[in-house]
Amino acid sequence: xxSIHVKRxxxxxxxxxxxxxxxxxxxxxxxxxxxxxxxxxxxLLQVQEMLGYLPGPAMEQIAAALKIPAVDVYGxxxxxxxxxxxxxxxxxxxxxxxxxCYMVGGRIxxxxxxxRLGIKEGETTPGREFSLERVACVGxxxxxxxxVVDEQVEGKVTPTRVDGILLSFEKPAAPGxxxxxxxxxxxx
Amino acid sequence: xSKPATIFIDGRKIDAFEGEKLLWVALRNGIYIPNxxxxxxxxxxxGSCRLCYVxxxxxxxxxxxxxxxxTDSLSVQTRSPQVDRLxxxxxxxxxxxxxxxxxxxxxxxSCELLKIAKERGLKMKLTRLxxxxxxxxxxxxxxxxxxxxxRCVLCGRCVWICREVIKVGALGFSRRGxxxxxxxxxxxxxxxxxxxxxxxxxxxxxxxxxxxKEGKKPAAxxxxxxxxx
Lengths: 188, 229
Hints:
The complex is a heterodimer of chains A (about 190) and B (about 230). By secondary structure, chain A is α+β, with helices and mostly antiparallel strands. Chain A has two domains: about 20-80, Arc Repressor Mutant, subunit A; about 90-185, 3-Layer(aba) Sandwich (Glutaredoxin), CATH 3.40.30. Chain A has eight helices and five strands. The two termini of chain A are about 35 Å apart.
């Protein structure tokens, strides 16, 4: 039986001082545009370019300026795949879902990441360490299934390789990184 | 309204005005055409439920009556084999996204899906399609009503009421395609959404997606203006 998950959005708390930055950035962008509904997409694109994603307070501020319900802005931001609602992580994982990768188990790789990190595609881990996305095709189908880790392309990503990729981030600065990660988790 | 026009629906002569949408003329004259997404007063009909097809004389294909402007001496048939086929398919597509189980549904007395099924002799069960099993949570955070997404047919009446009539704008559509849902800003629960619990969306809802909690139905229920009585 096919099923759709209608999961309630889980949004990470803002970092210290982030709210101030959001307000300033959004105000700056809003000044450049006429407060008309048809400018919503350009405004959102520019805000996303500055902040890396569309945080809730930014969407609310834009909605207030354009005098439309905030849920409209949210509806638009969830309609287009271009918009991100979760902050980019320190490490960005892009799982390829092009035809070739999909056929040889891209889905499995994505699910492995989801399980290991405890997040869904498009989301970010609580400490903002990893963000997980799906991409269409990265252009190296012979290496399928492909995962792009930050800027580096990883080929033939099996579930074991998924563990390997995640482990490689834990190793180098073991004590410091782990402590930082734990702190982030506690804070959230 | 503009010039008067005389039109024929199923051979019956009816007086209307040019520019009116055919669906409303038919309903006003006691001719039922199935519809879910049509909202009286909405400038641009969304035409998304695909239930209100009629056969227009001179047109090879059926047209949706909610978007068809009346012109003088327009002649339409509300039923034809082509219309029936389209409506049957559209109805089954809607049902494939709607959790059945009418027996425990709070809206079974006023359900418009049941009304359409009865009117057009359609079955309330899926024959060609599989049910999309929605793992949707039921939002019962509001004090007076419940929102059960698994029974939502995405007609948009509640969204329109919330926005255009009450001017609250707590409800809206989000996501795309098969994942499209009626939701609140950032998918928060209704209690946190700025909803004022006017209850008009509950009355506007044609299915069992929005229903009053037991004993919480307001005594002087407001008149739902989207259907125009």
